[in-house]
Design brief:
Blueprint (H helix, E strand, L loop, with lengths): L1 H21 L4 H4 L13 E4 L15 H13 L4 E7 L4 E7 L6 E10 L5 E9 L8 H14 L3
Antiparallel strand pairs: 1-5, 2-3, 3-4, 4-5
Helix pairs in contact: 3-4
């Protein structure tokens, strides 16, 4: 009887971990406008004009070129794939999975014209599972913005 309970617990744990790794990502839920997104609490990071937690840098590229550059940077990030959108559409959402467990984080990007021929990148990163992300989303966004500002 004890062996059966242990096996059942192991199956439940493995099943839960498989669900986290293999659960489909619905673009309708995750490909949202980062300008209208609520500020994440404890599990994400938002960079947009007027945001309480981070202001975007001014980039000397028009919005679509900023998105092309950010798209290249995002897709060069390990375990990151595009979920929806394109630079031409004006918004792109990516899924980045953690190395060990494959937990998905979602990052949506857009860019606003700055009125001087450049743009302000807007980035909204959040996790799907759990309530704390150990600042992983913030670190990813800051890395992308640093690489963008460096002209990568």
């Amino acid at each position: 009887m004890r062996l059966a309970v242990i096996l059942l617990l192991v199956l439940l744990i493995v099943g839960g971990l498989l669900w986290i790794r293999l659960a489909p990502s619905d673009p309708e839920r995750w490909h949202i406008d980062p300008l209208a997104a609520p500020l994440p609490v404890g599990n994400g990071w938002l960079v947009r004009p007027g945001a309480d937690n981070a202001e975007p840098p001014q980039i000397a590229l028009p919005p679509e070129a900023t998105l092309v550059a950010l798209d290249r940077i995002a897709l060069a990030t390990p375990r990151t794939t595009r979920l929806a959108g394109s630079p031409a559409e004006g918004r792109i959402t990516y899924v980045t999975r953690s190395r060990l467990m494959g937990y998905p984080d979602y990052t949506t990007i857009a860019a606003l014209p700055d009125g001087e021929g450049g743009s302000f990148p807007v980035l909204y990163a959040r996790q799907r599972f759990g309530s704390r992300d150990q600042d992983v989303n913030r670190a990813r966004i800051e890395d992308w913005l640093t690489r963008l500002a460096a002209g990568e």
